[in-house]
Structure formats: C-alpha cells, structure tokens
Amino acid sequence: MQEIHLKLDQKFTRNFNIEGYGFFIKNLPSNFEAYIIPDNDTARLRSLQSSRVIKYEEKFRRFRLTTLTALSGKTLLLIVAETLEDFQQFPTNDNGEISGSISETNVILHSIDNKIYKADTDNVIISGNSAGLASESTLSSIDNHITKADTDNVIISGNSAGLASESTLSSIDNHITKADTDNVILSGNNAGIATESTLSSINSKITTCNTEQIKTFFDYQVLQGKSFFTMDTFNGNYEILISNPTGSGKKLYLASYYFTAKQDTNIEIYSDSTGSGSNLLISNRQIGNTTSPNFTIQTGNFTTGTLLGDMQIFANNKYRASLNDTGLFEILEGHSLHFKFSQSTAGDATYDLIIIEI
C-alpha cells in the first residue's frame, strides 16, 4: 500500500510507475474533477468522484492521473492498493470531503473519558473460599514439610561418583607443556610469509573503492537527470522517430522499451530514417528536473532508412507485451532510430520508451 500526496493548486497530468489493483481516495475536496487511467487503457478509466474505493480485477503496471480542477491550498491523498488484501483496510463509506479540527476531536475524547470507570487493582480483596485459592494456613502447612538443600556446600566422597581425583589431575597437569603464543617470532624467509617492506610496497599500489556508492549505469543517469521517457497509446498503423540532431554533442541510449497490443502487430526497426512529424512529450525521470533534452521524438509517416530487424506481438485480441529492460541501441549525433508498427486489424496498443542522453 502506497500513499501519494498531491497538491491541487494547478491542473496536471502525471504518470506513476506503480503496480496495483486499485485506489482509495482518502480526502477528496468538493467540486473537484479528476480521472485515473491504468496502463493507458481508456476502457478502465475511472472518475475519482464516482466512488471513494476504485478496484480492478486485473493488476495494472502503471497509471495516469489527470485533474481538470485547480483548488488553491487543497491536497489530495491517493492510496494505491498494491495487493488485493489492501482493500480490507479501506473504509467503505460514501465519497465526500473529510472535515474536522483538533479541538472537536478533543471534545469527543473528553466525553468518552468521562464514561470510563477506573478499577483500583492494587487493593483487590478476595473473601471466602469461592475464589478457589489456597488459604494462608494451607500454604504454611506445606512450607513446614519442605526441606531446603544447601547446594553451596555439596561434598562428593569416595570414588563412587566416578570423578577424577585431585592426584590424577595433578599428574596430568605435569605432562602438559604451555606454549607462549604471545611471543612467537618467525625468523628468516622459511615461513613463506611476505615481509613488511613487500606489503608496504603493495599497499601503495592499491586504489580503494567506495562500494556503497556503486550504482548501475541506468540508475546513475537517473540521479544525474539524464534519463528521459515518453509513453502514449495508438490504434492501427503508427511510427516513432527518435532523432539525435547534428551538433547536439550528445549520445543517446535506448535503455528499454515496452509495447502492448490487443491485435497482432508487426514492429520494424530502422536506422537513419528521415522526415518530420509531430513532437511527442518527453519527460525527465528525475522528478522536479525541468532540463529539456537535446533530442526529439516524433510521430508521423517517415522515409525508412536501413532495416535493423523486426519482431511481432501475437495478441489474439488480448493484451500481450514485448519487453526488454537492458541497453538496446546507441544513437550517435546526426543519426536516428525508427519504430514502424503495422496492424492488419486495428486494435488498442501502447508504448513506453526510456532514453538516456550523455
């Protein structure tokens, strides 16, 4: 279960890479309009005003939240149910804005406190035998029949105990030679141990590394604000062109792609295709970093370059995905990477690209 606090001073559309089965809207201001779309599937779109609890039968991988109202000074608390068990912790009351104050809460707590009677358990008296407890006289009678053993002064006499005698232990002690391990000296090189001068020489050539700061290449680029992503939906034939313009002074790395489709889809991949189209929104994966990338991602109809390969998604009218989370392509300055999607029968499809610019 994850809590997301969102300020509502401005309208916004935000994407969240959080998996789950639904949502609970803990406080929803009145006259506020917002919608949630899991996995870019418009068929699963829900209005936050319709119900405080939103539940899906199938697990989603990510979701998009769009607000159509700006409310100054208001905050939305959205709780994501990451498992089906999380719904058992959600209240089931109707939608509405939660209101109240600390002073009102204190009045209610004070009213409850006045109705609580405190029991003096320090002075409880049990009278009669009805409690079924032993009486003082019975316990005293039992105590008179208990013999206490002085275990501090136990003496074992004779050999019947099977223990070694003092004379035997003294005899053994005379045959034990104690080794002075505190003053062991290794002389010469016969011991096969490196000398102090050798170890000192090696130590000067060793470079230490802070392993706690080691991160993967992709994680490091996110921290540096050099990792970007774009995502959208389409239906039918569709093309995407990622271009690294001449003079950018940058290299691009397609870190991962994620495609889904409801109908069988053929995907051709080309290098150095040309043409122009409509620019797609590119977002920095370091939230709060507004640095714009030097590359562009466009959709349109492009003149194909060199075919690098193709692949297919066999959907059978169900969502199926082709996913690769490792480094895929490096796009040098003045070059481009082109994805061309073809569907014999049009069907809903989505894509998600992560690109690193260095």
Secondary structure topology:
Elements: E1 2-7, E2 13-16, E3 20-27, E4 34-38, E5 46-47, E6 53-60, E7 63-67, E8 75-81, H1 102-113, H2 136-144, H3 166-174, H4 196-203, H5 217-223, E9 227-235, E10 238-244, E11 252-261, E12 265-271, E13 278-279, E14 283-284, E15 296-299, E16 306-313, E17 320-324, E18 329-331, E19 335-342, E20 348-357
Q: Could you please describe the fold and organization of this structure?
A:
It is built from 5 helices and 20 strands. With 358 residues, it is mainly beta. Among the domains are: 86 residues, Jelly Rolls (Sandwich); 140 residues, Jelly Rolls. Strands 9, 11, 14, 17, 18 and 20 form a 6-stranded antiparallel beta sheet that branches. The chain has a 6-stranded antiparallel beta sheet with strand order 13-15-10-19-12-16, with no helix packed on it. The longest helix is centred in the first third of the chain and has 12 residues. The radius of gyration is 38 Å and the shape is flat. The two termini are 36 Å apart.
Defining key terms:
flat, Jelly Rolls, six-stranded antiparallel beta sheet, 358 residues, mainly beta, single chain, 34% strand
Quick description:
The chain is mainly beta and about 350 residues long.
Q: What proportion of the residues is helical, as a percent range?
A: 10-25%
Report Rg.
Answer: 38 Å
Tell the overall outline: flat
β-sheet strand percentage: 25-35%
- Determine the CATH topology of the domain at 218-357: Jelly Rolls
Tally of DSSP β-strands: 20
How far is the first residue's CA from the last residue's CA?
A: 36 Å
Mean pLDDT across all amino acids = 82
Largest sheet: 6 strands, antiparallel
Query: What string, H for helix and E for strand, traces the elements in order?
Result: EEEEEEEEHHHHHEEEEEEEEEEEE
- State the low-pLDDT regions, or none: 94-101
CATH class of the domain at 218-357: Mainly Beta
Q: What is the count of helical runs?
A: 5
Structural class: mainly beta
CATH architecture annotation of the domain at 218-357:
Sandwich
